[in-house]
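Lab notebook, bench 4. Still working through the backlog of constructs that have no structural model yet. Next entry is a single chain of 184 residues. Request: give me the C-alpha cells for it.
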Amino acid sequence: MTVILIILAATVLFFLYGISIYNRLVKLRTMVQEAWSSIDVMLKKRHDLIPNLVETVKGYATHERETFDSVTRARAAAMSANTIQEKEAAEKNLNQAMMNLNAVAEQYPDLKANTNFLQLQGELSALEGDIEKSRRYYNGTVRENNILVDTFPSNIIANIFSFAKSAFFELENAAERAVPSVKF
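Model written out:
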C-alpha cells in the first residue's frame, strides 16, 4: 500500500511539474510574440517618419533624385517584409539608404538649420534608440524561450506540444549593429 501511495505521489508530482513547464513555455512564447509586436510597431513609426524627412531634404536638395528614390524603395521593402529574416534584410537596406540621405543632407547647411528638419531628426534618433531597446528585449525573450525548448526535461514537454525555437533579430555585421547616426 505504501509503495502504491509513493508511486501515486510521484506521478502527481511529475504531472504537476509537466504542467509547470508547459505554462512557462506558453508564457515565453507569448512574451516573444509581444516583444516582436513592439518592434513591429516601432518600425512602423519609423517607416511613417521617413517620408517626412525625405520631403524636407528634397526641398533643399532637388537634384539628388536617386538618393530619394532609394530611400523610398527601401522603406517600401521594409514595410512589406513579413518574416524576421525578411525584416532584417529590409531594415539593413533601409539603414544604408538613410545613411546615404544623411550624406546628402550634410552638403546643405541651410537644411541643417531648418527647425522642421531638426524636429524630424530628433524624433528619428529617439525612435532608433527605442527600436534598439526593443530588439534587445525581443532577443532576451527569444533566448529564454530557446533555452527552455532545448534543455532537459523541458524539451520533452516542448516536443510533445510542438513548441519551437524562435529566431533572433540580428543584423549581419558589427558596423550595422550600431544605431545609425542621423545628425545633419
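Notes after review: Residues 173-177 have pLDDT under 50 and may be disordered. DSSP finds seven helices and no strands in the chain. Flag for follow-up if needed.
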